[in-house]
Structure formats: structure tokens, C-alpha cells
Design goal:
rod-shaped, mainly alpha
Length: 59
């Protein structure tokens, strides 16, 4: 393989690696957002459960 073809192949491989790293970073960031949302929903459900329990006890 000539040096110019090898250089072009390495450039393409480097670009592909950069795209893969970017995709992984995006997925990790999305996972963090998903986890934060789960925690908020869990807290809201716990509060709702407390309100329901308090209402049932007051009847």
C-alpha cells in the first residue's frame, strides 16, 4: 500500500474513532439524564404515597 493510501486509510480510521467516541459520550450523558429523571419520579411517587397514606389515616 502506498504511503498516500495508508495516510488516507488512517485518516478515515481516526474519523471513525472520533465518531464512535462522540456516540459513547452522548449515550453516557443520556444515561445520566435518565437516571436523574428516575430519581425525580421516585421522589414524586414517594410523596404521593405519603399524601395517600395521610388521607386514608384521616378518614
Amino acid at each position: 500500500m502506498s504511503s498516500s493510501r495508508l495516510a488516507a486509510a488512517l485518516t478515515r480510521a481516526d474519523a471513525a474513532l472520533a465518531r464512535a467516541e462522540s456516540a459513547i459520550a452522548h449515550l453516557e450523558k443520556r444515561g445520566e439524564k435518565d437516571q436523574a429523571l428516575r430519581e425525580e419520579v421516585r421522589a414524586a411517587l414517594a410523596e404521593l404515597d405519603q399524601l395517600i397514606t395521610a388521607r386514608e389515616e384521616s378518614e
